[in-house]
Fold this protein.
Amino acid sequence: MSAAPEIHIEPGAPEPDWLAVDWGTSHVRAWFLRGRRVVGWATSADGMGTLEPDGFEPALLRLLPMPDARLSVMICGMAGSRQGWIEAPYAATPCVPPTAERAVRAPTRTDRLDVRILPGIKQVDPADVMRGEETQIAGFLALNPGYDGIVCLPGTHSKWVHVSAGEVVSFRTFMTGELFSLLSTQSVLRHSMAVDGLDEDVFLSAMSRGLSRPASLGSDLFALRAEALLNDLPPVVARSRLSGLLVGMELAAAKPYWLGQQVAVLGAKGLANAYRISLEDQGLPVMIADAERMTLEGLKAAYFAEQDADARTGS
Amino acid sequence: MSAAPEIHIEPGAPEPDWLAVDWGTSHVRAWFLRGRRVVGWATSADGMGTLEPDGFEPALLRLLPMPDARLSVMICGMAGSRQGWIEAPYAATPCVPPTAERAVRAPTRTDRLDVRILPGIKQVDPADVMRGEETQIAGFLALNPGYDGIVCLPGTHSKWVHVSAGEVVSFRTFMTGELFSLLSTQSVLRHSMAVDGLDEDVFLSAMSRGLSRPASLGSDLFALRAEALLNDLPPVVARSRLSGLLVGMELAAAKPYWLGQQVAVLGAKGLANAYRISLEDQGLPVMIADAERMTLEGLKAAYFAEQDADARTGS
């Protein structure tokens, strides 16, 4: 059993009638909503990676402070993977981000919960997958209707996505964040590395090196170790260079996506900012949006899709 | 305390008078010698990474089946690092591989052991270091006097070394082996990966891809995961492609070393063979030598350097 969840309810708010849930590999986050109004939220470390299929319902119930409420639940993310609560088979590119009608109903033992899980999106060639990011894109499109261009979602598995006419046209995933995490905490470089802090000048200079000389990554990495041994390289400089080299290598490979394009970066603040200054360094105009807010907006868009469509057609 | 060491003594062999020791991060291996003749060997998991400075002498004594012998000991590798038994400060390029006269005497509590540790080699710009490989190079040069060209030492931290007139002129280190280990056992790719086996055709094709498109590593890696999810990519194919992509990226960056050169690969059999077929695929003639044997020959060369020099000068 994991640590107790963190739960916040807005004092005096109306009872929620549904839950918007982002279920990742390491964490789950739920928003309590009454219609479109957020009245609270809860989070725990009961990520998909820690749960068997029959563990999802109890983990969700632990997030609920209202013992008797009957709730609809709309979930995005890894809960819909093959190792999750129930598999929500991928939609295939090109496609609009999946909404309620594509969602898969999850089995529950209590009749208090009516649970649906949104599918991710797959691309056949080159093979690629996303689960969760499609909902962030849906949220971004809900707030920026008619957006046509590139959406970049930096993270453990960074995504570059071509969005046009409301559809995900194509995308590529880069293991940049996972490489950073492995190298900074598990490799020989961990001895030379600060656990946080970023020197923007060092980051940008290394980003530029990674972008222009991506092949040299393997030796540029070991040079961090050698400079720490021989020249007492400051740990924040080492961390900033590692980050810059990896982001630069990603930008080199993602160039067909961003060159001459409009780019929206959806990410947590510090990470989104690192990508923003990297792309601005290449002369691109960049807009930023908060990933967590986009997820919530995307879950709302998916949940209300049918009635929004009804409203639009006047039925 | 670690597992018991493995010890082999040749039946009926003369008593050893010295030990040649390769002390790495995760293991230690000692050869028992009488003059130039190997009469046994021992190994244990008492690597530098598991020992405090005062733990090296007991770890060495545990390898000895001869309780009363008085022995000279010549060590190469991580025992001479700052975190090791005692620091043996780096020699600087360009230099010959260090021999006994550059070795640092290690403190011992018993007078049975006379222990010396060989320095590694550093390069100031670009910053780089080696500890242990210089002794393999010394061994290779002892068996191939006058060799002029490139020595490649694949491994956790692969080295490419320019050797000329008996000296290490310059070198670069690549984190290829460590990246392979982290990605195949710690990353999301571990779910898709065989623990051994190599399909040579798949390896060579991925190597060629990594060599020509090194920037794409981040997305080529995630494609292994996506193809496992979508197309049931066979685990041995995934492992062969991961290995090929990483070796290809290394060859792309190391091209100034090998292009148009004579290359000797010093490595364990399977790994050396992977580099050999990769370089032959690029049209290079390649010679291979066993890394462990080169280490032993290098320790012998270091140990006997003074008397060999005396013999050459006729004194």
